[in-house]
Amino acid sequence: MRQFDIAVIPGDGIGKEVMPGALKVLDTLSEIDGGIKFQYKEFPWSCDYYLEHGKMLPDDGIDQLKSFEAIFLGAIGLPKVVPDHVALWGLLINIRRECEQVINLRPAKKLKGVASPLATEEDFNFIVVRENSEGEYSQVGGTIHKGEEQIAIQSAVFTKKATERVMRYAFELAKKRRNHVTSATKSNGIYHSMPFWNDTFEDITKEYPGIRTESNHIDALSAYFITKPQHFDVIVASNLFGDILTDIGAAVMGSIGIAPAANINLNGKYPSMFEPVHGSAPDIMGKGIANPIGQLWTAKMMLDNFGFNELGTFLLDTIEGVLESGIKTPDLGGKRSTNEVIEEVLLRLKRKG
Ligand code: NAI
Ligand code: MG
To answer: Is the pTM above the cut of 0.90?
Structure first.
């Protein structure tokens, strides 16, 4: 029996509405499997916390998180805390950086029972491996002069270490999938960093003779995500390119409410963080209709990360069964509430387990 200590941060808005059901699902999986157990500690860090304390989390907040095996997060940010980046940088980005979560993973898959906006009938199932620590999102640069004379310089930072790290991660992942890695580049336009990216990709390719590879410019690749998503398996991308590609991935799946994500720590010193792609959805909060699937699929990624892949697959298969039966929230064209979807997932897990 393995027990995992999980820091739970429901956060704001619908984060608070989808989290309780996800924990129930995890506990039910633990009952069924018998080999895994979860111990949760819930943290109230959120916009409400900010309004009361003037910060998103206490000064030793990150230290408190470091002893957990994983962080399971709902969503952060509400219009009552402005500007928006106070909440996001204060909590999310802070955790990603401090816990050295250097890889961001976002799978996209055509789920049974969910209509994709794409006309294609073909199934697709790919995952974007995004560099999460440097690249275009660096604080290197500055501005000088005022008015007409103003100049802004923003430097992208690409280290050999992080570039090799993200590429090796993608190749290792491809070995467990369909042995295919696509590199997102733009070496025809970006003069220094992208030729460096390509050279590094060629080097790492040599370490993995069993893996088929290709390199696509980001503009063409973005279009291919729409015209032939079934072509892709693992895509490795820089921070900015990965950010954009993963939003396309969520879009072609049919709703942002189902898309999961993981921020992975690789050195074992700090926990990884699992969070759905969606935000706090202030427009629907309090109505009880938030789609819980994004949070549930995120739980599946956490199970995979713990090495319980079979249990994770069991959960995703069950979710697909629920969607296929038409039990869906309004964002997917259904009429059911958050709780009704969760109840159906629980029922089917227990029946099959
Ligand atoms: P959002 O993802 O919260 O909502 C975008 C649209 O998708 C809305 O119409 C919403 O109703 C819908 N939607 C999102 N998740 C859904 C779900 N599970 N079920 C049904 N419908 C869903 O993005 P938005 O509106 O741009 O941001 C709202 C707040 O969330 C902002 O403060 C923003 O900064 C924050 N945010 C936080 C993120 C995080 O915690 N990782 C990610 C994105 C935004
Ligand atoms: Mg994004």
So the answer is: yes
